[in-house]
Amino acid sequence: MLGSVVVGVGIAGCVRMRDLLAPLPSSAAEKLSIKGFVSRRTLEDQQGVKQITMTEALSRSDIHVAFICTENTSHEESIRQFLEAGKHVCVEYPMTLSYTSAVDLWNLAQQKGLVLHEEHIELLTPDFKQLKKDISGKTLEKGTLHFTGGPLKPNFGFPSFSGIARMTWLVDLFGELTVTAASLVEEKENKYMKMTAHFLTQQQKPLTWIEERGPGLGRAKTIDFNFQDGTITELPDGQREPVGLFMQDLVLFGRKLQGDVSAAELQAERSRILHCLELADRIQQLSENAQA
Ligand code: NAD
User: Fold this and answer.
1) Cβ count within 10 A of residue 240
2) Run of H or E residues at 199
3) CA of 11, closest atom in ligand 1
4) What chemistry does it catalyse, as a reaction equation (predicted)?
5) Is 165 marked as a binding-site residue?
6) What is the share, in percent, of the chain residues with pLDDT greater than 70?
7) Which of the four CATH numbers 3.30.360.10, 3.40.1160.10, 3.10.25.10, 3.40.50.720 does domain 123-241+278-291 have?
8) Rounded to an integer, what is the distance from CA 126 to the centroid of its chain?
9) pLDDT tens across 138-147, in order?
10) Is 9 annotated as a binding residue?
11) What DSSP element (H or E) covers 12?
């Protein structure tokens, strides 16, 4: 059994604790048990789990794994601390708020022989799985993915990082991309922002990603993908699955810990994650240059 600690008790952290307390039967997630949680606040037991200090979490020999579920700005430091302490890490996306720090952390994990896993539940949703099937074999001409949602909480980073789940969709569907232009419109007093990023696929086809947030904006994704043989403007309704998204991710992480995921799969995942972080960096640079 691998003892675990959950760091950060927000929406994601609570789901992690719930799943660790009742892992999917006969899955790799059963190899994980929860030993405690870390929070900046002093809290009562959560779902029967006790609060421990960060120092304890880093030093206890019965804790082998950390789940980093805090706001994005603190991911990098927490990952580094746990890797340095010899613990495996599962971090909620985005791993960090820069490409170079992610490369550094991955190298550190490799040197230490530890698993560093970044959660990407957006790739596990029934709608996305169905969309990927529907698109398979089609030749893209151009496309747009427009996300809307309420204002973002503080400490989640530049929108190309906080919204990296949307860009991960595009990269997973259409392959590696090049950023050609990016801009950010921000009305701080109205808690409104709109980021627009333009890409080219390797086949030189244009893709646009819009991330728009503000009061009253409902959480939604709109797609408009034009292919040689037709257009997709509606997200398909994928078949609902009995296993929740975070549990599916926990099973994948558990399989990595057991050495049950092939080197080729790990390499492909790492390349996709680092590519997305590199694009996020570039979008931030271009947007900030345009504002300067
Ligand atoms: P949240 O604001 O609900 O939770 C963050 C929690 O972390 C808060 O309780 C905060 O007090 C705590 N925290 C922050 N810094 C800390 C520190 N240094 N030590 C201990 N606790 C600390 O946010 P959330 O929605 O749970 O998101 C957390 C992470 O999960 C983010 O990286 C987000 O991108 C990712 N994520 C969330 C979801 C989701 O459905 N909520 C889905 C995928 C990924």
Assistant:
1) 7
2) strand 192-201
3) 26
4) (4Z,15Z)-bilirubin IXalpha + NAD(+) = biliverdin IXalpha + NADH + H(+); (4Z,15Z)-bilirubin IXalpha + NADP(+) = biliverdin IXalpha + NADPH + H(+)
5) no
6) 100
7) 3.30.360.10
8) 17
9) 999 999 999 9
10) yes
11) helix 11-21
